[in-house]
Amino acid sequence: MTADLSQIVKAYDVRGVVPDQWDEHLSALFGAAFAQVTAVPAGSGAIVVGHDMRPSSPGLSHAFAQGAAEQGLDVVEIGLCSTDQLYYASGALDLPGAMFTASHNPAQYNGIKLCRAGAAPVGQDTGLADIRALVESWLDDPASAPASAATPGTLSRRDTLDDYAAYLRSLVDVSGIRPLKVVVDAGNGMGGHTVPTVLGNLPLTVVPLYFELDGTFPNHEANPLDPKNLVDLQARVRAEGADLGLAFDGDADRCFVVDERGEPVSPSAVTALVAARELARNGGHGTVIHNLITSWSVPEVVREHGGTPARTRVGHSFIKAEMAATGAIFGGEHSAHYYFRDFWNADTGMLAALHVLAALGGQPAPFSTLVAEYDRYPASGEINSTVTDQQATTARVRAAYADHPAATTDTLDGLTVTTPDWWFNLRPSNTEPLLRLNVEARDRQTLERLTTEVLELVRQ
Questions:
Q1: Residues tagged active-site
Q2: What CA–CA distance (Å, rounded) separates 33 from 66?
Q3: pTM to 2 decimal places
Q4: Which of 23, 25, 91, 30 is nearest to 57 (CA)?
Q5: How far apart are CA 9 and CA 7, in angstroms?
Q6: Angle, vertex CA 278, rays to CA 309 and CA 421, nearest 5
Q7: At how many degrees (to 10) do helices 83-93 and 349-361 cross?
């Protein structure tokens, strides 16, 4: 195998096809580089490593652990875990961490999500570029490969599932809620590992869907952001007469919600609901982060509950940086990533799910009624268009609205045009020749007109 690290080292993580693009030998080099770049300079004598249910994950994660141990670090291997369980271990043990997962990607993929002690993210600007450069230098000149430390580190095993579940449940009390029936679609991913422990011994009847850990994803892709992957959950919620449906992605760090009618609930509405609860828990004070394509309802709800909304770019590294800079209590994204100050500013879909269950179970109304307060405006969802020139297309759209008397424009992340009645954001994909459009308006007729108008400009 000839490794091209430019193809597998992304903005936030490592991700590629196994064994075509990377393998256990390369994983061991990543482990050594992670030790040299991230752990040793910070004075960490140990790291924590976990993995998902993909067939290649145990071998890759163990090779990484061995590579780090050869640099003198002790390695705590926590085995099968969700990504937020790895973040829990990094936070609770105060150790740098590595999670082996490719999230919702197909079975032949795998990857590494890296963090510093306390679950602080490692991305291109915070160590990942340096790790890549070091591994590339070793590949180019094998003689320069890192020598083993005089005293190699040790490898030990530790099960953190019970502690992770107990910690989450210490942050949201769901013990006194009314009895609920909840359908959970784990998509054959890590939710099948964590949900029984986190939601066990509560006044819940959990109807499991695809809880068998299977990294080949035999039932559907473990990506609830795609509506076709929610179809089975929606049907089962209706058939069971359930109060709620929850869907987790492959590494179970994102959580999607469907109401008692089987209708998907906007992640913006979930963000607003959880924000209101976190503000109440913090005495009606605190900053809440939202990215620029979440609904108008999010900053509105935050202000109504005494909080301060803060708008940021799309992407977990930007959210986490803003969380740290502002001391924010909570943050949410349209992609169903939810970030909590009390979870080391890291994202955990499971903690958001507990908030949803507590909110629903703490009052008598169905979820569709409860969430209507937080779901105020019609939105397009994300619409992708393939374009030959992202910059020229964006400039054409910007010019079309330059003279609109009520419009303001900003370029925080792509192009955002806002009026009192509507807004849209058009931003480029970092990895594909795509432009992603999100539109929201005060009414559906305006939404449909504006969406058609902008798409015609993009696709002409």
A1: 103
A2: 12
A3: 0.96
A4: 23
A5: 6
A6: 35
A7: 100
